[in-house]
Specification:
Layout (H helix, E strand, L loop, with lengths): L14 H14 L11 H8 L3 H13 L3 E4 L3 E4 L4 H25 L2 H20 L2 H17 L4 H9 L1 H11 L3 H20 L2 H26 L1
Antiparallel strand pairs: 1-2
Helix pairs in contact: 1-3, 4-10, 5-6, 5-9, 8-10, 9-10
Length: 224
């Protein structure tokens, strides 16, 4: 079934960037599914643009790891494989432990209040039940933790992992039982940061990432 794709025009951005953002969001949201071929002519017709910005966007998506170029076949949406999941979360696990250690040391009173609000937003999103809203609020919760490090280079590196992590996180929160597990884990993470207890905080964030890995791997294996 073909999802409707809409271009959100932004006068501040060149058309190629608008098309790139549109296709990237479509992949992250699952509107363009893993393994789906990206045909330039069809995408151009669906978005009402020429093939040139489509071609440029596909190249950028390939660099971000969201698209694969297959010899004699063309471009397709990158699948969420077991190996790519392990690769991403292996890096994230180490960086998240560093981030939470720095945040325990450096987060301000205002930062803690912001993290409390972000946690409440996740709870509200889970109660509403919309997967995209849950994923976005979950992402914001982690962003506030990263901001608390006061280390712009670390935040930049973590943001570079955002696209692939976002896809995995969205897959994870599709299961309603896992949403409530996520809330309990967030509460534990929040408590350890509030107490500024670094060893407990690093354990909490590690378990959070590892639990996601187990659940998503199970979903990938079930779909194969």
């Amino acid at each position: 079934m073909e999802h409707e794709l809409k271009v959100n025009m932004n006068e501040c951005l060149p058309l190629r960037d608008v098309v790139f953002n549109t296709l990237r969001q479509a992949i992250l949201r699952g509107e363009l599914e893993p393994g789906e071929r990206l045909m330039e002519i069809q995408l151009a017709n669906r978005l009402g643009v020429s093939r040139t910005p489509i071609r440029e966007a596909i190249r950028k998506l390939e660099l971000d790891g969201l698209v694969l170029m297959i010899p004699r076949k063309g471009a397709e949406v990158a699948k969420i494989s077991e190996q790519s999941l392990r690769d991403v979360l292996e890096v994230r696990r180490s960086l998240d432990e560093l981030a939470i250690e720095l945040t325990c040391q450096r987060i301000t009173k205002e930062g803690l209040e912001k993290l409390e609000r972000a946690h409440q937003a996740v709870i509200e999103a889970v109660n509403e039940g919309d997967p995209m809203t849950i994923a976005e609020s979950d992402e914001h919760f982690h962003d506030v933790i990263y901001e608390g490090t006061q280390n712009s280079r670390l935040v930049q590196i973590l943001n570079n992992l955002r696209e692939n992590i976002y896809r995995f996180r969205l897959e994870y929160i599709k299961d309603e039982d896992h949403r409530h597990i996520m809330i309990a884990e967030h509460e534990n993470i929040l408590r350890t940061i509030r107490d500024r207890h670094i060893p407990e905080a690093k354990i909490a964030i590690r378990e959070h990432v590892e639990n996601q890995e187990v659940m998503i791997l199970r979903k990938i294996q079930e779909s194969n």
